[in-house]
Amino acid sequence: MTIHLSIVLWLPLAAGVLALLVRGSLARWISVLGALATLAYAIVIVADYDVGGGLQHVTDEMWIGALGIHYKLAVSGLSVVLILTTAVVFLGAALWSALRGEPGSRPGLYAVLMGLAQSGVLGAFMAQDIVLFVAFFDLMLVPYYFLTIVWGGPRRGPAVLKLFVYTLVGSLLMLVGAVATGVLAKAGDGGATSFAISDLQQSLVSSGSQKWIFLTFAIAFLVKMPAFPFHGWMPDGYTQMPLAPLATFTALLSKVAAYGFLVIALPLYPQGAIEFQMLMLTVALASILYGSAMAFTATNTRLVLGYSSVAQLGFIIVGIFALNERGGDGALLQSVNHALVAAPLMLVVAMLAARAGGSEDLRDMGGIATRAPAFAAVFLVLTYALLAMPGSTNFIGEYLILLGVFTSKIVVAFVAAVGVAGAAVYGLRLYIRAMHNRTGPAVGAREMTAREALVIVPLMLVVLALSLYPQFGLQRTEHAVKTSLVAVQDAAHDRGETLAAIGKEER
Fold first, then answer.
1. How far apart are CA 305 and CA 294, in angstroms?
2. Residue 328: other Cβ atoms inside 10 A
3. How far apart are CA 265 and CA 363, in angstroms?
4. Is the CB of residue 425 less than 8 Å from the CB of residue 352?
5. Which of 7, 226, 230, 247 has the greatest count of CB atoms below 10 A from its CB?
6. pLDDT tens, 421-480?
7. Is the Cβ–Cβ distance between 445 and 365 less than 8 Å?
8. Helices 130-139 and 107-126 meet at what angle, rounded to 10?
């Protein structure tokens, strides 16, 4: 079956532009229809995907011939499940906003910005040219600036400025690295300049260049995740961004960074990945420990989830830089898991605030579990998934990550395991203080409404489905993860290092 990826890519933005031309609630529902159509396309892509078949549904047109920049899109094993996850999360956010009549003003502008955000994320997952990837990597963030400026909290100005400064530095570094890669690869083989990832894999830049270029990409990805200590924009950004956009932001933008490590940093700069393996693992461990500690002490529910994301993304980095197949499989599965759990939990924050007089502070909540059993049950399922209870798909992801790093860096594995206990502590604290304990002063206990259930319950069911059959994701990613690590394994041999030193498992 021939699928034109450009249609899938730009459909959300097209729906947003159409919504901009109409008035009132119709704009919100056009946005929902656009997200629903995108999900339908994504399901077809996954159903048609040939496991182990490499790049599929390739679109390759010369974009800027003088510079060798391609408009090259494709679906790979690294991206196919993430594309479906993106469609699911954005549909949930669009439906949530439409059912609640949010935002109250300028819904057409809101729809076009959310459509642009979804197209940006999809473009980053489909891009097979590093300059095109950088363009989408930056484009997907632009709508969130305006969503926060127009509909954000009272301190949105400083929050947006901090987010802009952090991400601008990272993006500029990545652009420098991308340009240097194309120029140096051309100088190395004497051919024409090309920024297509497939071309660059055939002509890697020199070992010395790989190391510093790797760092430019790594810093940009760590800022976007965010990872400690590059998370300075996160507290202000999370507390000031509107909740539905924040749900998509925390679920998906960080996964583009994790995906970037696997599709660009490891295959194109394997010497850099090996050289800075311990540095990246150290950053990951710091993120796990710091994020867990801050999630346990924070009282703002958004920040509890924000810091838990820092910790969870630390696990994903550990899996990637175990530099073996088990770790890579776990990192990719955990990227999907976290997206599907983080998005509905952010929407749960709005549900809790609506029952606590508008407050998002844990100290103002509590005492509603017995009077809202359905809400309590859904929240509990999502909480168990967050803390990776056995039987959840998050447990499988974390298990694979720990198994992968245990074969290469046993001390790192033991320290990372502390984060598993940390997740249980902050996850249960969030649930108990929000649903049990004493009733907050302004709490009005009521059951989950039909409109809330229409969004939250399907997202919860997706989490349960993946928990029952995690192989849905793993069977589509395993071959691609192996391919992503080939260059790292070859580089290890060139350096005369043992396979165990970089964590490759014996087959």
1. 10
2. 30
3. 43
4. no
5. 247
6. 888 888 888 999 888 877 767 777 778 889 999 999 999 999 999 988 888 888 888 888
7. no
8. 160
